[in-house]
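The passage that follows is intended for readers who have already worked through the single-chain material. We present the inputs for a multi-component assembly, then the predicted structure in tokenized form, and finally a short commentary. You are encouraged to pause after the input and sketch how you expect the pieces to fit together before reading on.
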Amino acid sequence: MFFKVLYMDTQNYLQDLKEIKELMNKSTLFISLSGLSGILAGIYALIGAAVVYYLIENHEGYYITLESKTFKLIVLTAMVVLLASLVTAYVMTVNKATKAGEKMWNSASKRLLINFLIPLITGGIFALLLLRNGSYGLVAPVTLIFYGLACVNASKYTLRDVRYLGITEIILGLLAVEFSGYGLYFWVLGFGVCHIVYGSLMHFKYDRK
Amino acid sequence: MKNIIQNINKAFDHRIRLGIMSILMVNESADFSTLKELLGVTDGNLASHTKALEAENYISVEKQFIGKKPNTSYKATQEGRNAFKNHIEALEKLIQQS
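Having made your guess, compare it with the prediction:
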């Protein structure tokens, strides 16, 4: 009789420990990130890169200056890709969160977003300042490095995979400094290929259940 | 055997109280609505359990206004953290023994 009671208690305590772990994760991590949105963001980036490549090929004259139409079109393309990726990520994440019964705006997701945005906005402003000062060659590495740092920083509040994505982006960014002039190719690798690879990984790991 | 059971804390002998402490162990603070949502309990139920933990001095309560809305937020005290850790360790030992 005593042993039976003890056994039942043990089962209850095991259940307690499981619930404690779940609550600790749920209250600190936002895990409804959609892998599929990463894949789509990667595809947008590849399309964007193809457009930019086409623009550069068809540019008349050797230098692309800040005032030129080509440059403005390149910036526009980058903005469209960024916006499309953000909208896609937002819509799909809301979708996944709703399905999982998790609220989109909870303290975990707010913390995730704030910690992601601090390095990202810093990098964005830094890149704009570089453009203004004519250091075009550093723009591609800087955006990659700061995006990577944003991912690493945000990864404390979400799925572990984001950390590895961030580290990959940082390495690519540093390499891009060494191989300046190949900025577009590093962008294709970092924002296109990496997103598709990590997005698929996350999709198969978490979404297809 | 007796020692282990002594460390099982009566104050945590309830799912919701254990849940509140779990959340406050890993978060600096949590407000009433966050706790409610995470634990899936009613206002009255949650309030009675936070009061019980507050009475034990395991959590501290801070009431303030955010704009015009009253906001109650909870924090785990050092005493509460220690008690929770002891409780978990006791649970682990108990499970290992059987």
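Commentary: Chain A touches chain B at residues 6-7, 9-10, 13-14, 16-17, 19-20, 23-24, 26-28, 103, 106-107 (CB under 8 Å). Chain A has a mean pLDDT of 87. How closely did your sketch match?
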